[in-house]
Design goal:
- This protein is α/β, with parallel strands linked by helices.
- It has one domain: LmbE-like (Rossmann fold, 3-Layer(aba) Sandwich), CATH 3.40.50.10320.
- Strands 3-2-1-4-5-7-6 form a seven-stranded mixed sheet, with helices on both faces.
- Helix 2 links the parallel strand 2 and strand 3.
Length: 217
């Protein structure tokens, strides 16, 4: 399988990470972030979580800082839009994303998948495409009981060590999620193994994304 690299070691890359909730970015793309940092890419990251209460806001900030340790520069912002009600707050969320766009120049935008069953995730996806029309957008996936995983077409291979680091950070920073029956090592390893098989990753693990539009240079 032929690869299209985002950046090589020593090169700079600007990434905008968008997540509806405090653990979304880490679950969907935490491995990618860790892998890019480990490869020596000089990351400039704007990390934006759109919904978090008091406890989850603290979790979101601490987790983002842990995942981004070693990056060139980073900004972490946490908004307080009402969980599970994003469609009702679409206008305000769009204004927030327009404000983010005015302050960033990302090479890549990470966001939720189009067919995610969670209404907040779908709203973020729709607004991402509405606001960031001229950007490379990678849609990440989040396993859940809805059974809404789609057929991805882009993969980030992960080493076994980086996958274990991702899982370790998830469990370290998101105590509010540990009671959920899907939030466990087996789920994260199983999905990463499946995606690793699909792309024939060297160490058998990967994160998967959907790319709906890309410019070939």
């Amino acid at each position: 399988m032929r690869g299209l690299g985002l950046a090589r070691g020593g090169e700079e890359l600007s990434i905008l990470c968008l997540g509806a909730h405090s653990d979304d970015i880490e679950i969907g793309a935490g491995g990618m972030i860790l892998s890019l940092i480990a490869s020596g890419v000089k990351l400039h990251v704007f990390w934006c979580v759109l919904s978090a209460g008091d406890q989850r806001s603290a979790e979101a900030r601490a987790s983002a800082e842990a995942f981004l340790e070693g990056s060139c520069s980073s900004t972490v912002e946490v908004a307080d839009f009402e969980d599970s009600c994003f469609p009702a707050h679409s206008r305000s969320i769009k204004q927030r994303l327009l404000d983010v766009r005015s302050r960033t120049r990302p090479d890549v935008v990470l966001t939720h998948a189009k067919f995610d069953a969670h209404q907040d995730h779908r709203e973020v996806n729709q607004l991402t495409w509405n606001v960031f029309r001229d950007h490379l957008v990678l849609e990440y996936e989040i396993p859940k009981w809805d059974g809404d995983l789609c057929q991805p077409n882009a993969y980030m291979p992960l080493t076994a060590d980086l996958l274990e680091r991702k899982i370790g950070l998830l469990h370290e920073h998101f105590g509010s999620q540990r009671s959920k029956d899907w939030f466990d090592r087996e789920t994260f390893v199983g999905l990463a193994r499946l995606r690793g098989m699909e792309c024939r990753a060297p160490e058998h693990f990967a994160e998967a994304f959907t790319v709906r539009k890309v410019k070939i240079l």
